[in-house]
Specification:
Largest sheet: 8 strands, parallel
Number of domains: 1
Radius of gyration: 17 Å
Mean pLDDT: 95
Distance between the termini: 33 Å
Structural class: alpha/beta
Strand content: 15-25%
Oligomer: single chain
Strand order of the largest sheet: 1-2-3-4-5-6-7-8
Bound molecules: zinc ion
Low-confidence stretches: none
Number of helices: 10
């Protein structure tokens, strides 16, 4: 039987896997990316056979223009089913956050993305209305993480306070922290781990799956910052079974986006 790795090495499109990228980006940024257009993202997905990419605007990281989410909404509407969206928020105040969340979650965004290079903690009270809405609607909340103890503490607090929201920790296992991320995912049913990373050590995917359990691991590429093919290749080449690869590339994400867990 042909394995997924063999198919990847042949350059086959893996359309039949219904692959979901749970960590993508759109929008201008200070990074040197030549083409950040939604069409460029979808062209890359087509080359690999990726079905859906859930994107946030790059202004999750910086104070940006107020129309950042509108730009992502345009992309969702231009590529229905292919591009989905995470709402990004600047915690200027609870009322403002509530207005943004009501407007965009009602308009069809799939979840919320928060980044703490903004200088604000994930437990900042201004975020609370959006997190409460994500909880009510059983939506995913993607959090940028980098294995910092205070981030783990914030995740524990949020996962407990909003038990129906599904928290996804980006860059899980970075800098030798696989066991710590695995513990967190096993402690909380609603904490999941994403795989996107610029430099992934050999054995990382296998060890993260072992530490957290395969149902808690999600594929994310960080496209268009990182190359989606490179991020997919490390999963295809991981020493885990093809059934496990299918779960972390597709089934786990579909369960979360379908709000089944
Ligand atoms: Zn990212």
């Amino acid at each position: 039987m042909t394995t997924l790795l063999q198919r990847g090495r042949r350059g086959e499109r893996l359309d039949d896997l219904d692959i979901v990228d749970m960590h993508g980006h759109l929008g201008r940024s200070p990074f040197g990316v030549p083409d950040l257009s939604p069409a460029s993202l979808v062209a890359g997905m087509d080359r690999l056979g990726v079905a859906t990419c859930v994107c946030s605007h790059t202004h999750c990281m910086y104070a940006g223009p107020s129309d950042a989410n509108a730009e992502v909404l345009d992309a969702i509407r231009a590529f229905p089913g292919r591009i989905a969206g995470y709402l990004v928020l600047w915690p200027s105040g609870a009322d403002d956050v509530r207005r943004q969340a009501e407007r965009y979650l009602d308009a069809g965004f799939a979840g919320v993305k928060l980044h703490d290079t903004t200088g604000f903690r994930y437990t900042d009270p201004a975020y609370a209305p959006a997190l409460a809405m994500a909880d009510e609607r059983r939506m995913p909340v993607l959090l940028h993480t980098w294995a910092r103890a205070e981030q783990f503490e914030e995740v524990r607090r949020l996962a407990t306070a909003y038990p129906r929201a599904n928290f996804i920790l980006a860059h899980s296992g970075v800098a030798g922290s696989i066991d710590a991320y695995g513990r967190l995912a096993r402690e909380h049913a609603n904490v999941h781990l994403d795989l996107c990373m610029s430099l992934t050590p050999c054995g990382h995917v296998e060890r993260l799956v072992e530490a957290a359990g395969v149902d808690k691991v999600l594929w994310g590429s960080d496209a268009l910052f990182l190359n989606m093919a490179h991020q997919l290749g490390k999963v295809l080449a991981a020493r885990i079974g093809d059934d496990d690869k299918r779960r972390l590339l597709s089934a786990n994400a579909r369960r979360i986006l379908g709000r089944e867990t």
